[in-house]
Every structure is written in structure tokens, then in C-alpha cells.
Amino acid sequence: MKLDAAFFDSLSRLRLAMGHKSSMNLTGNRKSVQKGSSTEFSDFREYMPGDDIRRIDWNAYGRLDRLYVKEYMEEKEAVVSILLDTSASMDYGENKKSELACRLAAAMAYLGLNNMDRVVVYDMQKMEAPFVAGGGKRVFPRLADWLEQRKSEGIADIRKAVERMQVKGPGVTILISDFLQEDFLDGEKQAAERLLRFLSYHRQKAVFLHVLAGEELSVDLTGTRNFIDMEEKSTLHLTVDAASIRVYERALEEFISGLKRACGGAGAFYAVCDTRMDFNRLIFENLRMLYDI
Asked: Is residue 279 within 8 Å of residue 103, measured between CB atoms?
């Protein structure tokens, strides 16, 4: 992963929008449903014996001749879950999809850690052994090393991976994948809707980062070719001409549109992440709606 200090300096100014208030019992930078001692005012209530007298509102006492205390929103740690597709199909493109996926995972993880969130990064094929990090960005180098060790091979099942997540309260769940699996390709809207309902039930703000290679988004192959399924290892012998490219482009447009509509209907975030795109532009422009700035 080629991410420099200037990039992280710019990233430090952003924060992932959560969509839910946190209910975790750990200190962090997110506003909780609980009352506590942060500096953001929440409400007044009548004074009760044992309350901190420093919270008494003496102006209110002067007007009403009764003691009231100020309540503040307590700051709690939120959870950012990142699920990384490591299937063989991600190892494709002159600029590998797997490389962009890891860079996206690193950027999203850094955003969470920099804002004192708990970050859990999953390899979709090894859900039982996630990388769990908290306590700030000092742990980021170890997380980056863990991402560097990911290999794109075999088959990942996105639905089963999501169902095996360790969900403990509201948070953000970020799926980074090419979504090139039978469920999504044959009935992408229905598969995505089921996944989104599951995440909504568990109070997760869903983020779909759809990683596609430039060669997949803009096909310029012609002639007779052997197409090899990178996961199933099966081979298809095809002649590629202008008509077949148009069929492919329509199918790709329907695939992307189906995922986009499903996410839009569920209030989830969706973005196509093109391996040809400048990474800074992708993070700071195309994904800008992800952030509380």
C-alpha cells in the first residue's frame, strides 16, 4: 500500500458519519445515548442529592428558586467494522482490485482510529480471526501490516461473512468487494436487500464500496478469447465483437444500478471504486458523503 504522510494528514481532518448514536461502554469521541461529562450540553433536570454541585445552573436557581443541574452527552467509542473481500476475483486488473481494496480498508480504518473508534477489520474468508484495534492511531502500523499479508485466492461468501460478524451495538459496517458472486450477479437487488435488512436490524450504517478494475468497466478486448473463472477455474471460449461488448456493458450497468438502488432504498452508502482513478480523488471527492466534516 502506497499511502504517504500528506495523505494521512488530510485524512485526519475527516470523520466517518455513524448514522446512529453509540451505546458502547468505552471512552471515545462519539456522542452516546447515555448522559455523561463531555462538553456538549444535552438537557436540564432537577437536582438530586449526590449530584455534582458544579453542574448546578445558578442562573436557573435565581429565576426559579429551584436547583437544576445540566446534563451533557457522554462521549463513547463507536465500532467501525470493515469486511474485506479476499476472493480470487479481486486479484485482477493491471491495477489490482485487491490493492485498491486494501488501500480503502486502510483509509477507512485510519478514519476510525483517528477518532478513537474501535475498528474491526475482517478477511471475509477468515471471519473467526479479525484484526481488532482501538485506542487511537498508534496501532495503525500493525493494522497496515495485517492488510499487507492478505492474499486474494479462493472464494468468499459475502452473505455468510456478514452474518458471522461480531456485532455488539450500533456502528458502521463497510463492505469492500467486487460483489462478483452468483447471488449478486443473478439477483443483485434481492441479495443486496437481504444483506441490508440484516445490517439495519443490527443497527449498522451500511457502506458498499464496489471495487472494479478499469478493464471491467471499459472492455476493449476483441477476437476469440479464452475466459477463465479465477475462482472456479472453469474456461469459456468466446468471440468478442462490438455486439457482445454492448451486451456486457448493459449487463454491467444493470448490475451496478441494482446495487445502487438497493443501497439507496435502505439509506446505505454505495460507490463504485475504479482502480484507474486517482486515490486521493476517490477518497476526498467521490466518497465525501461518508464523512462528518
From this structure: yes
